């Protein structure tokens, strides 16, 4: 009798999932946002500490003068949003890795979402509604750089 070699059937081609690979996008975002955050933060630190006269020169007036220019409002807003999204994404990954029970994972994800939303909304409001010289305020309560009027 001749020994016949068994033949294997050709493997089936894997079916492609039609949903996006969110973990891949998350991974790519973490690398891109981390690099962009480095640039944003170092320019922020250079502007505030080196060209701004050091940490002792940072006060209410310094921030008011800086945020009087829209470019610095947008710059600080980008730092806020990117840092919060980057950090929340990292915490989401940690929660998914270490929270084994579904209830615990959902609770932690909910708390993370609430904390994220509160910080982003309040930070955005502070950046865009900041007014060091509100109209109609008593002159004795206004900073020295505001003109009483």
TrEMBL record:
A Pfam family of this chain: Sdh_cyt
InterPro entries cross-referenced by the UniProt entry: SQR/QFR_C/D (IPR034804), SuccDH_FuR_B_TM-su (IPR000701)
UniProt superkingdom: Bacteria
Keywords: Heme, Iron, Membrane, Metal-binding, Transmembrane, Transmembrane helix
Membrane spanning residue stretches: 72-94, 106-130
Compartment list: Membrane
Main location: membrane
The protein, known as: Succinate dehydrogenase hydrophobic membrane anchor subunit
Lineage, uppermost ranks: Bacteria, Bacillati, Actinomycetota, Actinomycetes, Micrococcales
């Amino acid at each position: 009798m001749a020994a016949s070699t068994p033949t294997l059937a050709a493997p089936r081609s894997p079916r492609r999932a039609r949903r996006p690979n969110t973990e891949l996008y998350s991974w790519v975002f973490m690398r891109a946002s981390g690099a962009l955050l480095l640039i944003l933060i170092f320019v922020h630190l250079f502007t505030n500490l080196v060209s701004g006269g050091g940490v002792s020169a940072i006060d209410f007036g310094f921030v008011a003068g800086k945020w009087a220019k829209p470019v610095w409002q947008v710059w600080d807003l980008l730092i806020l949003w990117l840092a919060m999204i980057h950090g929340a994404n990292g915490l989401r990954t940690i929660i998914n890795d270490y929270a084994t029970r579904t209830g615990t994972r959902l609770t932690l994800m909910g708390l993370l979402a609430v904390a994220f939303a509160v910080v982003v909304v309040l930070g955005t409001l502070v950046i865009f509604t900041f007014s060091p010289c509100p109209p109609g305020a008593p002159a004795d309560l206004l900073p020295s750089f505001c003109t009483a009027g």
